[in-house]
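Hi team,

As requested, here is the filled-out complex form for the manganese (II) ion run. I kept the field names the same as last time so the parser does not choke. Let me know if anything looks off before we queue the next batch.

— J.
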Amino acid sequence: MIIVLKPNTKKEEIDAVIKKIKDKGLKPVPSKGVERTVINVLGNIRDDSVNGFKSMECVEEVIRIMKPYKLASKEHRSQKTVIKVGDVTIGDGTFTVIAGPCSAENEEQVMKSAELLKEMGIKIMRASAFKPRTSPYDFQGLGIEGLKLLKKAREKTGILVETEVMDVRDVHLAAEHVDILRVGARNMYNFDLLKEVGKIDKPVILKRGMSATIKEFIMAAEYILSNGNKNVILCERGIRTFETAYRNTLDIAAVPILKKETHLPVIVDPSHAAGKRELVPALSKAAAAAGADGLLVEMHPNPDEALSDGAQSLYPEQLAALLKELKPICAAVGKKL
Ligand code: PEP
Ligand code: MN
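And here is what came back:
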């Protein structure tokens, strides 16, 4: 951090800034110019210390040079994080497709989805038991019954299962039933939930909030990492812009920048970005080309009857076709599919 003082700041004021820096356990390196003094501050700088200096009367500007995220950063860990779940690895150069219905609706639909996915060679099924719906009158998910169905699907078919948690109180129960937990876009800022999923040892897919900056997104991951869970997968799912022709704007640049800034695997959800199934193949292929480690994509055995997000859910045969189309793109960027 660099603290730039206002021109002609008095010596006592400079000394007060220096004392405050030292009191915070940081090291001041002042350099006095003709007109103004600039103080370089070394050490482990937290956001609240930056704000503490910004508010001082004699301070003109505080420039932060250290990244606010530590554990998520490449500086902290130069090797890529590889997530191991069952016999699947995510982030090791494989392109991992996680697919399935938006919601777990009933036993038949969950089992049918699992079987269809297995036939296509997909090893992880998504399906939400707890649903964050915009309207309280829409299908809210099967809750614990949904978790039990997912566990049953895994026992019967061997497919790994992934689901969303919305409530701190459900985290440990959900972790007993599924292989991967998901924090949805609406909960990216739910810091208590982030802390709680930080206490389990199962992988967590963290989705980007719909108006979250990249920095805020990585800071949310930092909450999980700093509570002890190192198995975080970042998921770009589109952000809210002025555009209304589709549900969200897939921020494809997020993929290379997240990979540059962090060591965590990055996957893309083309379904919630698109809102329409016709756009899903193109967005999926763009994600693969941009270097994503995989997809989280909605497929329903019968999208026309889906209780949530039918319009953006692929028909099973569309997902099978997409997997074929992804192969040469993954090969071109050096990923195995
Ligand atoms: C989902 O994946 O089921 C979902 C609700 O997506 P998002 O949190 O990205 O809106
Ligand atoms: Mn959905």
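Two things worth flagging: The mean pLDDT is 95. DSSP finds eleven helices and 14 strands in the chain.

Thanks,
J.
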